[in-house]
Write a structure and sequence with these properties.
The chain is an alpha+beta fold and about 400 residues long. It contains 10 helices and 19 strands. It has 2 domains: about 140 residues, RNA polymerase II/Efflux pump adaptor protein, barrel-sandwich hybrid domain (OB fold (Dihydrolipoamide Acetyltransferase, E2P), Beta Barrel); about 220 residues, Chloramphenicol acetyltransferase-like domain (Chloramphenicol Acetyltransferase, 2-Layer Sandwich), CATH 3.30.559.10.
Amino acid sequence: MSTEVKVPELPESVADATIVSWRKQAGEKVKRDESLVDLETDKVVLEVPSPVDGIISEIYQAEGDVVLSGQLLANISESSAVDVDAPEDDSVEKIITPSAKKMIEENNLNADEITGSGKSGRLLKEDVQAFMNQPSVQQVKESGVNKTTTNETVPPVKTPLKSPGNTSGDLSDKTQGERIEKRVPMTRLRARIAERLLDAQQNAAILTTFNEVNMQPVMDLRNKYKDLFMKKYDVKLGFMSFFVKASIEALKRFPAVNASIDGGDIVYHGFFDIGVAVASPRGLVVPVLRNADQMSLAEIETGIADLVDKAKNNRLEIEDMTGGTFSLTNGGVFGSMLSTPIINPPQSGILGMHKIQQRAMVENGEIVAQPIMYLALSYDHRIIDGAEAVQFLVTIKDVLEDPARIIVGV
């Protein structure tokens, strides 16, 4: 019995998806709920699990192909016909990965002449490339004698000259005078990021205002309670929860910063869904903490930790990425001293946090060193006036320099 594996139903906001990588190949055993293939959309990477135990009998789409909801991806021979725990039959026809098959067809090669290095002799893309780079194949291809190859010339492999004692094989080992370039296509996420950032700059009147905040009160409070906090809630008490709370207090006082433009209307949101910018292996993503105003400091820290873990392991879902009424981005974790963040459309404001640095401050007529952070608020000047933006940032500063306000609500 055979079971079809299809592209899952994609949200309305996602037109299609690109196959990033197959985790399993034709001929491999697979168990139910085991991940088969990763699909990349404009927002997240979706894992498609196996619906049954069995062996993959055929794969219909190659890595890099664009697919739609419901499109057939693979067939699986169920375990009723095949024991998934039994060793695979060595007499099975040679297994070729989709990317290797594509390269073989493009170069008119004979798969029987190529030795596979993958599991159970599976023929990989790297095996085809290595075969094409063999000197004997190169010479035959150049002479045009080999009928299994095209007349196209495949560039010979360059053997870089290595300096004595240097065997790392990295780009520093290149031939003297050689100028190396590498061209790779943008991922869908990177292309979407580029599109949205360009759209924000072209279609919004972005302005940035700055202030500074003395972080000593927050640091003292954090140092006093961090051990008890960790013991009780099993999560670290960081700075982000304080900034989220301070931002929400400011958003309540200045609702235009929590609003967005829709055509000729201004939409004022009566809820506070806070986006938190996170660096992931695929690029910058901004997952959302929903109803953050109803969360405690511990719930905020736990929610952010979960989103960061999802982002780093490509487990963010569409729901994690949609919506958001205001965003925070912390360039300080990478050492940024000051920046002008770009708003995340259709939001109208974003708070930029930066590195905490000891600076000379005048207090009561004396110069003292204090841990200072520069804050940046980028906002859409079409609906937020300069006075509102400045007072919004001052509110955040006041709350952070007197964090008891978070508890008292003043």
